[in-house]
Design a protein that fits this description.
Length: about 150
């Protein structure tokens, strides 16, 4: 086959350092626009973005040449710098070092989009920690809770 065809939607989750509530309403929309531009610059597409003041959920279609760890390192570093440059009062902003990345089947994209869009509703019933552990369990990812939180 002379061409490569790829469909790699991934649900990415990461939080601010120490889960500080630093993603304020005045930052959120602009942050998601910035993240979308960063993904596009690397041949990826941001399909959905949402979250809470202490974490983000991103649905991203990865390019065939992009590794999850590489794109997340770039996205987190550049967006942190952008926040520092754009919002001088956010000099302490930082992302946690880790992340969650979960493969999404094409048929499940609408459900993941709804999940991301309804973060405020989800967090009326469960904490970020409970949500993240549920994602790990749903995707059958082994973990040791002693090493989950910074």
């Amino acid at each position: 086959m002379p061409q490569s065809y790829v469909s790699l939607p991934v649900h990415m989750v990461f939080s601010t350092k120490h889960r500080q509530p630093l993603i304020t309403d005045d930052i959120r929309t602009r942050l998601f626009e910035y993240l979308g531009g960063t993904f596009r610059a690397h041949g990826c597409a941001l399909l959905a973005a949402g979250g809470m003041p202490d974490h983000v959920h991103l649905l991203v279609s990865l390019s065939k040449q992009t590794a999850v760890s590489d794109i997340l390192r770039e996205v987190k570093a550049s967006s942190s710098k952008w926040i520092h440059d754009t919002f001088p009062g956010q000099s302490g902003f930082a992302w946690q070092s880790g992340y969650g990345a979960f493969a999404v089947s094409h048929s499940n994209l609408p459900a993941v989009r709804r999940y991301i869009a309804n973060q405020a509703e989800h967090h009326r019933q469960r904490s970020f920690q409970e949500e993240f552990i549920a994602l790990l369990q749903r995707h059958e990812i082994s973990y040791d809770e002693r090493y989950l939180w910074e």
